[in-house]
Amino acid sequence: MEIAVLNLQGKETGKKVSLDDAIFGIEPSEHTVYLEVKQYLAAQRQGTHKAKERAEIAKSTRKIKKQKGTGTARAGSAKSPVFRGGGRVFGPRPRNYDFKLNKAQKKLAKKSVLSQKLKDNEIKIVEDFSFDAPKTTAFIDVLKGLGLETKKTLFVLGESNKNVYLSSRNLQGTKVVSNLELNIYDIINASEVVFLEGSIESIQENLRK
Questions:
Q1: pLDDT digits (tens, 9 = 90+) for 24-37
Q2: What is the pTM of this model?
């Protein structure tokens, strides 16, 4: 299929980009998308939580009361979890929450969300642009020209562009990534996905492999 390329004012330039039906026209796999999002969010967790257990508590080791004759249960250490200030039983330990997902599944998930976005008319192709220097007002003008100033938008560049990235950094609801940084969570999280013309071929090439 073909989709028109827009300029920064939102007008058609007369050029069209060909989108591979095997990437942008498949039947979405919801379960694969779920697994990919779950894996992405799990990988973001630091996993640095830690509670001290009985052996790690710094307290006296003396027997706190005599063994018999108190009328209560025997107790031999203030580190016991039954006492306030004692160690925690089976407390959280540092761990890695990430899990493996096959490359084929990750590609299928990305194809699924791209196909759904195109089906919902939430994808735009814009001619390549750059700025001479970082300037937020210049990026705001781009958003206004495309009618996206009130929408959560993801811009996908063909290659890293520091000036474009810095120009968008202070704008809430707008994110700029290169085609190599593109991930499924950002695509789903955006109301509109704007691909620069130069990014399409490399994205399609990566997903064909």
A1: 999 999 999 999 99
A2: 0.82
